[in-house]
Amino acid sequence: MVRLRMSRCYREKIISLFSHPCFSDDLTPLQSFLLLDPSENMREILQNVAKQQGVSNMRKLGHLNNFIKLLCNVGHSEEKFGFTYEEIIICLRLALLNEAKEVRAAGLRALRYLIRDSNILQKVLRLQVDYLIARCIDIQQSNEVERTQALRLVRKMITVNALLFPSSITNSLIAVGNDGPQERDRMVRACIAIICELALENPEIVAKRGGLSTILKNVIDCQLSRINEALMTTILHLLNHPHTRKYVRSDVELEQILAPYTDFHYRHNPDTAEGQLKEDREARFLASKMSIVASLRSWSGIINLCKSGNSGIQSLIGLLCIPNMEVRRGLLEVMYDIFRLPVPLATQDFIEALLSVDPSRFQDSWRLSDGFVASEAKIILPHRARSRPDLMDNYLALLLCAFIHSGLLEGLVEVITSSDDSVSVCATILLGELLHMSPPALPAHSYEHGLSKLRDYFCDLMELCSVLFCRRASAAVNYLKRFHEKKKRGPKPNSLYLDHIIRKSLAAHYCRDQHLRPQRDIFAIKDTEEALMMNLRDSQILSHKQNLEWKWVLISTILKWPNANLRNNKEEQMHKFVRRLLFFYKPSSKLYASLELDHSKARQLTVVGCQFIEFLLESDEDGQGYLEDLVKDIVQWLSSSSGLKPDRSLQSNGLLTTLSQHYFLFLGTLSAHPQGVKMLEKCSVFQCLLNLCSLKNQDHLLKLIVSTLDYSRDGLARVILSKILTAATDNCRLYATKHLRVLLRANVEFFSNWGIELLVTQLHDRNKAVSVEALDILDEACEDKANLHALIQMKPALTHLGDKGVLLLLRFLSIPKGFSYLNERGYVTKQLEKWQKEYNLKYVDLIEEQLNEALTTYRKPVDGDNYVRRSNQRLQRPNVFLPVHLYGQLVHDKTGCHLLEAQVLRCPVLDKWDGIKQLKAALWALGNIGTSNWGLNLLQEENVIPDIIALAHDCEVLSIRGTCLYVLGIISKTKQGCELLKMHGWDAVRHNRRQLWPVVPDEQPLIHLSSAPSTLSLNSESTSSRHNSESDSTQPSMYILGDDKLESSELSEDQPLYLRPKLLKDRSPFTILASSRLVRNRFLISLSGKKLRSTSDPKGTGSSSKLHGEPTLGGLRRIRTVTEPSIFSQIQGDVFRLTFPNFSLNVHFSAFLQYKNPGLLGFFFVVLYPPFSFLISAPTAHTLT
């Protein structure tokens, strides 16, 4: 910026005015100047600016600066200035012709402050000032000050009225955007940003001047993900609406982003030197990959790139069959990014590549100095949502369907069998991921079509097979088998801390109120005293002093030996064995404690140490002395650590880098055992930990305390946790709050009895980050009815937490107890009014912000900051669980359903964005209403589902199609919703979305049931919960075993994260009527038209209950109210229609669907390698598991 100063002559003139009586002694010269008549000031300013000679450039600078200050103080008023705007603009226009760049910059700045509305802008353009502005943009690149002011003025013109924007300036901006990169113009990105901004407001002028081609050219020129995505978003926004879609030739211009891959001789710049071709090609690959991924993150991009015929993705997949390793490697990276998968390490070793993408692999954010166990658990442990739809599943299902039907599976097989080993390994892992993702995400017959095509493809290949092909095919089969086994096991905890929490939680569930160790998976060794003594000798612990050379596997076996403890073995050798181990693990010996965390035996030594603690606990009195000696030594070490001076770092004590931090695991092992708790109390461990909670600069110690203690029993451990939650530093309180999420997901016993109370306390924390985190954890906790009941019992204050607090409060309405609590206080009626007026629209903003954050580099703005932030890194497979909606909660109660009948949701004209937003609000509301059987009855009565499907197929606004896809996915949340959609030609997944190996039932014609009214009573609370509970839906997620769902299977170290699929309850079929004809031109979506039913007239007999114009089935007319289900209809044949936007496919069920499906992997094995046919089992019962 140029510092503007008044000339000496001008200052002297101002000072001479001080003799005027209107000035007092305490006024500055500038204040005195502003107290003069504005018209006199304006006259003097304009005269000096317009003079050709006699006024120095410095003086003109001062006058232009004073002109801005005059505008800011007086305002825009021609009467006060004494000049018209035309006269002012004519004078200021002369400043843009000055030879000094500083004066021209000041003139541009003055014009920017002057232009306030469209009227002034029109006068500026009428006087052809725009040509002078364009001249300032095109002038020498070194005049950055002037060009910066010119671009700021241009942005002001767009803000005032983009429709008046002149083509002269547009040409200048586009010229800089086209040639700036070659000329190394520093303003090129600013000009491109302004072109994008103008394209959103006035696409016509940008398109006519070739600006859209400039944007797409710069997309391939930009390797920064944030900028690349912003440029692509501009084009995709124009493709979204029919009024702006005409400016973009999607089949030509949009597919330019594919050129670096599809054109093997592609050159972005013709003058690129031969020596730089490889580097330039890699840069174009990266930019093209970013733009392709960004396109497939929007509905405009998906629909245009995946359309039927010669689509963009078909072009990309077809390239996989061309033996160009560079292109294949690049395309595989594109596919990994599209499906949100981590790219494996480029290596020929399959196991090494597979481990590189293992979600359990160590991450830097899991260190003690960073997020520690809370960060690890958030990735490893699944969300507690059992029934709430995850919108990302709908998005991935559409992508999977599009790519599978475009031949991606066949393309990957071609890459596997005809590429270099590293590329083949990468393609094999991608194929395994896609085969693993498809069964839970897609209807069975959808991906079965892809399998049939894959089978035919392999049959053709086998006829032309070579030795090399067979070798690679056989290797791929073995690799996929390993991949399948790894996926079947699931992710496992990386750290011993998280493993400790989960195993203790499981042990408590399986061995509740029993003080015996759970059965372990140990070596089958004959339980004799001779064998035990032999293992003692072979372990070398009695004969060698080198601790690390001991046979630690045998030591672990001895400690896990059935009935092996000091109570049953009185031999001196056993006591010597214990003394040797005790000395090794004592902190004072500095043997175990001094080892580095990354030591090769670190994990094994810590596991044996925990087993040693349990061994001593089971030895009763004989082991108490040894155990007490160890615990007291640990307490002494803790006291010395906490006695450090405040200015000393914990790193100097080795806590961050050595195994000394694992002593807290020993204390956690003791706290999980009743006898261990007594020992901790006896040795004053709890008192020592409480003292640590009061110290400053001990955040790492407090993290270890929080992460290792067992809280399943009421006692001092919970007191310590409560103190850290309320009295520690901000960072410690935040971490302790996050740890409550770990305990929730690990299904710690009786969490609803004490954990919910701690979370409610955190809602009132003075640090907003802590309260927001607690609110998010509570929202997840309420997925379990026990936690929701506990929260309602506490009646917390939530409205002070903003909209998220209101949404959590609305969850109370999903159960009768909470509905009664809020309805008695008139809260429901008030919320209905608010949602009708504003919250339905706010809900659209909320859900789209979450989707944008999950799919793009967009990050939610910080509170009080409206600046849109973007990140260079995309989140890996984020979840976007459907936010709570008032209507979705009300449909779980009879009274709530009656209240909803009076709500009106109308679809306005879609010419303006406000109308589009209102339609989205109506769609989301209808989708949430359809989450229960009673809500589905309401939708059937209004016959709106055909309209939603029609919008999904034919709506000209492409983002509406995407919203309809999400909404239909929500309606398919229940089995009854799936049946209803199937009748209208829209198929959905019929099983738990995270049920990896579903059994697909036979599709049988639905039996025509009696039309007699149902005996379900809406007055029954139990009926309400059973008939409409979300936990009974067909899409619950994986979850950790609940208290009432425990089975008798034994603990095993190979169990996959202690997760079990929930058994679906048998439910009587919800009857469905045949759909009415799709009315494509109908745009009224309403739930009105009926009087509100009273409780005394549940059937609505006081009003007309007959729906006119509805089809009949079997001679029965559809006469139904909210309190009774309708009837099933017969379906002709077993043909289903899989329908996504721009996808249509008719598929018959085959005999393959009658078998238990272990995933597409099993079918792949049968085709490639017949000996693996055992993976497809015999026919099983046709039930959902």
From TrEMBL:
Cite the record's Low complexity compositional bias ranges.
1014-1026
Instruction: Report which superkingdom the organism of origin falls in.
Output: Eukaryota
Mind listing the GO biological process terms from this record?
positive regulation of phosphatidylinositol 3-kinase/protein kinase B signal transduction; TORC2 signaling
Query: InterPro entries of this UniProt entry?
Result: ARM-like, ARM-type_fold, Pianissimo_fam, Pianissimo_N, Rictor_IV, RICTOR_M, RICTOR_phospho, RICTOR_V
All residue ranges annotated as the Rapamycin-insensitive companion of mTOR domain in the record:
916-988
Gene3D superfamilies xref list: Leucine-rich Repeat Variant
Rapamycin-insensitive companion of mTOR N-terminal domain segment(s): 61-443
Q: Name one GO molecular function term.
A: protein serine/threonine kinase activator activity
Q: Which SUPFAM superfamilies match?
A: ARM repeat
Domain Rapamycin-insensitive companion of mTOR middle: residue ranges:
527-746
GO (cellular component) term, any one: TORC2 complex
The UniProt annotation puts the region (Disordered) at 1014-1039
Q: What sections of the sequence does the record tag as coiled-coil?
A: none
Family from the record: Belongs to the RICTOR family.
The protein here is known as: RPTOR independent companion of MTOR, complex 2b
Task: Provide the species name.
Answer: Cyprinus carpio (Common carp)
